[in-house]
Design goal:
By secondary structure, this protein is α+β, with helices and mostly antiparallel strands. It contains 13 helices and 14 strands. The protein is about 40% helix and about 25% strand. A five-stranded antiparallel β-sheet has the order 9-8-7-6-10, covered by helices on one side. Strands 12-13-11-14 form a four-stranded antiparallel β-sheet. A three-stranded antiparallel β-sheet has the order 2-4-3. The relative contact order is 0.08.
């Protein structure tokens, strides 16, 4: 058994993580009376993160004017005063980050010190390396997104640091477990869109999008993005439709594949204080969102009962065993179409018992299928 090996990771990367954690834990970044202050605080943290990214790329530092120009350009700001930039640099210093100014022939420059550029050793066992590799394979649906770029960047650093003997051992063990069934999907074309959406979520800003739904023409609309969800290898944006006033129906899920354009607006929004996104998304069987899921009962024949028990539809489903060997599956869902495709997949081995509306929809689909095949 191989012992632990050590991987050196740049402190600059750890600084990024620290900034992200500060953003998540900042009490002003949430809702309530301080929402405006929270958004301002988010913008400050985003600027500071960008300053660190810029200084990481250069050896001899940047003047305040050079930093100002690059921050404005890379964040798409309309303006940025040098006083604000200086305060951001002072805040980074106060947070313990090794960044300081130095007098040079081209004026005073700011650059990261040796402590910011040093390395931190992280230990990995061979088993942990295999687990990391499998996790990376499961994340393939994120290809083309900023998230995947981060995964690949970290994985490449790991491979560069691992001794060849460890890699050989890893390759041997990797063959014992494979990840299959992950769609060959890429969001490379939506890279810019997802960056815009991610920034809008952090800053609580509205976004104007061009969206092309399946059953209606493409149109421009304004959304308030709350979070990003990866569901069955596709990315969805959980958001509120700005044009809808009804609090019970304005939140919905939009598939990233159908976004044609996204433009961040200088309009801000506040997430409802009583909205629990984890519960809201987890209420349903699929990606349809809503506060009022319905209970569905499906009878599964003895032949197919084991399939459903081996591969549960939902963590909170209930199964009632019947005398003839069949089972009655009880599960919550927001939309009929979260249930009907699964029932169709089982063919004549499954039957929707309730609600009546879903049973009627299923009946209509079956009649249409009979027409197509009974020719």
């Amino acid at each position: 058994m191989l012992g632990d090996w050590q991987f050196e990771r740049d402190n600059a990367d750890l600084i990024k993580i620290r900034i992200g954690i500060l953003r998540l834990l900042d009490p002003l970044s949430g809702n309530g009376a301080n929402a405006a202050d929270g958004m301002a605080r988010n913008e400050q943290l985003i600027r500071q993160h960008k300053i660190l990214q810029i200084l990481e790329r250069v050896r001899f530092g940047k003047t305040l004017a050079e930093l100002q120009s690059e921050v404005v350009d890379e964040l798409g700001l309309s303006s940025l005063h040098t006083r604000t930039l200086r305060r951001d640099l002072e805040a980074l210093q106060a947070a313990g980050i090794d960044v300081d100014s130095h007098d040079t022939g081209r004026g005073k420059v700011w650059k990261l010190g040796p402590r910011a550029k040093s390395t931190t050793k992280i230990s990995f066992s061979a088993t942990e390396l295999i687990a990391l590799s499998l996790g990376r394979q499961l994340m393939h649906p994120l290809a083309g997104t900023p998230f995947w770029m981060g995964i690949e960047s970290f994985w490449n650093k790991v491979q560069e640091q691992v001794p060849s003997t460890v890699l050989t051992h890893y390759e041997k063990f990797r063959r014992t477990l494979r990840v299959l069934g992950v769609p060959a999907k890429s969001y490379e074309k939506q890279h810019g869109i997802i960056k815009t959406i991610n920034r809008a979520i952090l800053e609580h800003r509205k976004v104007e999008i061009r969206y092309d739904p399946v059953k209606s023409p493409a149109r421009t609309r304004v959304i308030e993005p709350y979070t990003i969800v990866l569901f069955q290898s596709s990315i969805y944006i959980i958001c509120a439709a700005s044009e809808v006033e009804d609090l019970d129906t304005r939140v919905r899920s939009l598939k990233l594949d159908r976004f044609e354009k996204a433009t961040i607006l200088d309009e801000w929004f506040k997430i409802p204080e009583d909205l629990d996104l984890d519960q809201f998304v987890g209420n349903s069987l699929g990606i349809f969102v809503g506060n009022k899921p319905r209970n569905f009962k499906i009878k599964i024949s003895p032949n197919a009962a084991r399939w459903v028990q081996e591969d549960p539809w939902h963590p909170e489903q209930k199964v009632k065993e019947l005398k003839d060997g069949s089972i009655e599956l009880s599960v919550n869902a927001v939309n009929d179409m979260e249930i009907i495709p699964r029932v169709l997949n089982l063919g004549a081995e499954a039957e929707i018992i309730s609600p009546a509306s879903a049973r009627q929809t299923m009946s209509q689909i079956v009649h249409e299928l009979v027409k197509k095949y009974d020719k």
